[in-house]
Design goal:
Number of strands: 0
Structural class: mainly alpha
Helix content: over 70%
Shape: elongated
């Protein structure tokens, strides 16, 4: 293209000169030698035109060669980019290269995953112990407020004479002080154990002192296996000791109320009613606690499990007769809801749209499950919501269309 456009102005003139030379008669020798003859100027002008034409074409060819080199370089760059993009796209479909057993990248990945899971569980433990510590601090204040008068009732009075120094305090005052002191001591010991457990959990979630990820992972797993059972057991001990301290405090308070109401010759109706109402509420809470413990003993998956229910269930399970009548078994276990109803409900309650990509393929309609049509449609509407992915909505649409196309 460049050759034709650039040489266009030269070609007509060159053609005219060539035609004129061919059409003119052959000059004589004298005419050729004459400098004034105009035909002698034709070869020189033709030579200059040819020279200019060749120079122009040479420059055009040089530029064209440079353009070709530049285009070739761009093509090589594009091929390199496309090759890299192809490798990235196909990387998930190709197996990874095998590595040595002591490769740091593999051990680093599993170590980070393990310590992340441990920290999530430890955060739940620490939150529970923080709540216990705050409650213990408030509870100790209340117990101390009731303990001071109890100490005064059993201690010698400063205004008493020496003859009354040997006088013994009343039995009711001693029992009330015993209960209050026991509650106070157990609460303080529970707080000390909670602080120690926080320190142990901090050690558990810390990075083991080692330079290699393999050693870190092995040490962390060993520490976690040793700590899981003991920490879970100690957490149950903490809860039970805290409950025990509360029970002792309430027992001392009720005993003090009943002793106070019985110390008067005439029945004091207000104190008597207070002691009666407090006792009724205490019995009610005790019944609820006993029912939840029995429920946890009978049902293995009960949410009311505690250290007492686990102990009783372990004792009962050793006897085949009592375990057959008092404990549930896999054959006796009956779920309160069907698995499909449970699945539809969980899909409907899902808030993470990415989960719907995995849940949608299971939402296939079964003609025998007409009784769960309502929950199924609710789950289908959740998958068809605007926040779900196009793939999930398309999958659900295919399920629904196949259902109604069969009718």
């Amino acid at each position: 293209m460049h050759l034709q456009l650039t040489s266009a102005p030269l070609t007509p003139r060159l053609s005219c000169l060539v035609n004129a030379m061919m059409a003119s008669p052959q000059p004589s020798s004298s005419a050729i030698q004459s400098p004034d003859n105009p035909q002698t100027q034709l070869p020189s002008e033709l030579s200059s035109l040819l020279k200019a034409f060749l120079e122009t074409q040479t420059e055009l060819l040089r530029r064209q060669d440079e353009n070709h080199k530049e285009i070739a370089g761009l093509l090589r760059t594009q091929v390199k980019y496309l090759s890299t993009l192809q490798q990235q796209v196909l990387s998930d479909e190709k197996p990874l290269n095998p590595r040595k057993w002591n490769d740091e990248s593999g051990w680093a990945a599993v170590f980070k995953s393990a310590i992340t899971q441990t920290r999530e569980v430890a955060e739940v433990w620490k939150t529970g112990m923080d709540v216990n510590l705050v409650f213990i601090a408030l509870f100790l204040t209340v117990v101390t407020a009731f303990l001071i008068p109890a100490i005064q009732n059993i201690g010698p009075q400063a205004s008493d004479n020496t003859e009354n120094d040997t006088a013994q305090p009343s039995l009711s005052a001693e029992i009330a002080a015993l209960l209050f002191y026991s509650s106070l001591i157990i609460s303080i010991l529970t707080a000390i154990l909670s602080v120690l457990m926080r320190q142990w959990i901090g050690k558990l979630i810390s990075t083991p002192p080692s330079k290699r990820y393999k050693d870190r992972a092995m040490r962390h797993v060993e520490m976690r296996d040793l700590a899981e059972k003991s920490i879970l057991f100690l957490l149950k001990i903490l809860n039970m000791s805290l409950i025990l301290s509360i029970v002792l405090f309430v027992a001392g308070l009720l005993y003090q109320l009943w002793a106070l109401s019985a110390s008067f010759r005439s029945q004091q109706s207000v104190i008597l009613i207070t002691a009666t109402v407090g006792s009724l509420f205490t019995v009610l809470v005790t019944v609820v606690g006993g029912f939840t413990t029995a429920h946890a003993v009978y049902h293995k998956n009960s949410p009311f499990s505690n250290i007492l229910s686990d102990f009783l269930r372990n004792i009962i399970s050793r006897s085949s007769f009592w375990s057959k009548h008092l404990l549930d078994s896999p054959q006796k276990t009956s779920w309160t809801s069907d698995s499909k109803l449970c699945y539809y409900r969980l899909v409907q309650e899902t808030t993470d749209p990415s989960i719907l990509d995995s849940a949608a393929p299971l939402l296939q309609w079964n003609r025998m499950d007409e009784t769960v049509a309502g929950p199924y449609l609710d789950a289908a509407l959740r998958v068809l919501a605007t926040d779900s992915s196009t793939q999930a909505r398309l999958t659900m649409t295919i399920h629904l269309s196949s259902r109604y196309s069969n009718n």
